[in-house]
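Lecture notes, part 5. Sequence design as translation. It can be helpful to think of inverse folding as translation between two languages: the language of shapes and the language of residues. The source text, in structure tokens, appears below.
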């Protein structure tokens, strides 16, 4: 992943940091459903207080594009942007970023977090819809979880989630354990089919017992 991260930073004109700086990526449509309203409230102040790089790939609301263009002008060595479709770039982000940000207002399913985990890119998500179903919050006491989950839809909760992730990133051994758990998650249709079979078997047993 160190080579992947260097390639990602080079692609977006950012300094290569050899794993010394937390790299956060975001891939998706730029509108309020995806959480851009709360993201733009807190991202600038957060960049003033902790050192990390942020890479955004997406199309959508022109006002959000203008926001990120201004942010890049202010932090040219820490912000990377791409505002048009390119099928190569999301995987470059998943392979090279340390975390992927998905602060959605609502999300019926969501695929970004599942694909990112397969690459070892840790999701930072809101506890809603398919994000809540597929990402388990990291708990240091139990040493479990596959990402960082926040519940309230506000800028403060999102800020805390990113800070939690950046703090764990400094603990390299713990971060590696988190990556391995995320990469081991099985979202295949084979597993889903097995779960459906179990559900049907439970329904059959319930039906027989109720007769």
């Amino acid at each position: 992943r160190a080579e992947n991260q260097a390639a990602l930073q080079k692609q977006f004109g950012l300094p290569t940091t050899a794993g010394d700086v937390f790299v956060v990526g975001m891939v998706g449509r730029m509108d309020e459903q995806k959480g851009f309203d709360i993201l733009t409230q807190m991202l600038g102040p957060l960049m003033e207080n902790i050192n990390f790089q942020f890479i955004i790939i997406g199309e959508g609301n022109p006002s959000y594009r203008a926001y990120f263009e201004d942010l890049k002008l202010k932090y040219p060595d820490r912000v990377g942007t791409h505002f048009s479709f390119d099928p190569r770039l999301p995987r470059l982000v998943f392979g090279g970023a340390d975390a992927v940000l998905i602060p959605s207002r609502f999300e019926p399913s969501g695929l970004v977090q599942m694909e990112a985990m397969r690459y070892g890119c840790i999701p930072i998500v809101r506890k809603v819809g398919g994000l809540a179903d597929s990402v388990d919050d990291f708990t240091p006491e139990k040493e479990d979880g596959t990402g960082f989950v926040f519940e309230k839809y506000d800028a403060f909760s999102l800020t805390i989630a990113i800070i939690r992730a950046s703090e764990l990133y400094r603990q390299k051994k713990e971060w590696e354990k988190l990556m391995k758990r995320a990469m081991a998650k099985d979202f295949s249709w084979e597993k889903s089919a097995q779960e459906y079979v179990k559900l049907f078997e439970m329904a059959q047993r319930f039906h027989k017992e109720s007769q």
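The translated text above is only one of many valid answers, since several sequences can fold into similar shapes. The mean pLDDT is 92.
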